[in-house]
Amino acid sequence: MKTAVSLRTINKLAIPATIAGIAEPVLSITDTAIVGNIPTDGMESLAAAGIVGSFLSMLIWILGQTRSAISAIVSQYLGAGRLEAVKALPAQAIFFNIILSIILLLSTVFIVEEIFLLMNASGKILEYCISYYGIRVWGLPFTLFTFAVMGIFQGLQNTFLPMLIAMSGAVLNIVLDVMLVYGIPDLLPAMHLEGAAWASLISQGVMALLAFLFLVRRTDISLMPRFPLHPELGRLLLMSLNLFVRALALNVALVLAVREATALGDHFIGAHTIAINLWLFVAFFIDGYAAAGNIMGGRLLGARDYDGLWALAGRIVRYGSVVSFCLMGLGLLFYEPLGLLFSKEPLVLQAFYAIFYIVILGLPINSIAFVFDGIFKGLGEMRYLRNVLLSATFLGFVPVLYLGKTMGLGLYGIWIAFTVWMLIRGGALIWKFRRKFLPLLQKA
Question: Which letter does DSSP use for residue 3 in this model?
Answer without folding.
Answer: P
